Prior knowledge:
Oligomer: single chain
Largest sheet: none
Distance between the termini: 63 Å
Amino acid sequence: MIEQPQLKEMVAAHAEWLASNEKAGKQLYLAGESCIRADLEGADLRKADLREVNMSGAKLQKANLDGANLERARLPAANLRGASLEGANLNGAHLQNTVLVGANLRGVDLAPSDLELANMSEVDLTGSDLRKANLRRVDLTSATLIDTDLRRIDLAEANLHNANFNGCDLQATKLTGMDFSQCTFVKANLKKVRMQKATLAQVDFTEADLRDAKLTEADFYKVTLKDADLRGADLRRTISITSSVLKAAITNEKTTLRD
């Protein structure tokens, strides 16, 4: 296990390596090392090699991890509040119970990572890859997931209130019974999505692709469907949907409205 004094020296050498355009100092290399409960708050860890590192319970608030390699890293219960991980590789990372409130995760590879019970409220995941990721019981309140690949993601029991899913890809993903109240799905790919019994109150589906979607018994209270593509969608027994709302959508003879 690497102790805090040694880690501090290594981080200082990495800062010199970054400042010199990689001509002096030394890149931080912690692949496979154990740094449990390390204190790296505010540290500049850009481009660090942290593959398979064990940083369980580490303090990484406001740390800069842009472009870092965290493939298969172990970060359960770590605090990454306000940290920046733009363009980082988190493929297969373990992030259970991790605090990522307000973190920058734009363009991050998180497929297929484990984020169960993580606090990701107000996180920015724009353009990230979360295919097959485990986000069970995650808090994504007011999170930004614009243009994010979420195919086959597990969002069971997640808190998604007011999340922005504009342009995201959720094609053929199972989202049965979930609460998407006040979320936005503008221009999202929801083709063949399974949203049976979902709560869709005040959701904006403007120009979303909902072709062949399963939406039976979903709650459409004050939903926006302007130019949403509902061709082939199953809307039987939906709640609170009105003819005026449906009129704004694109439908065809395969759109099912009644049993």
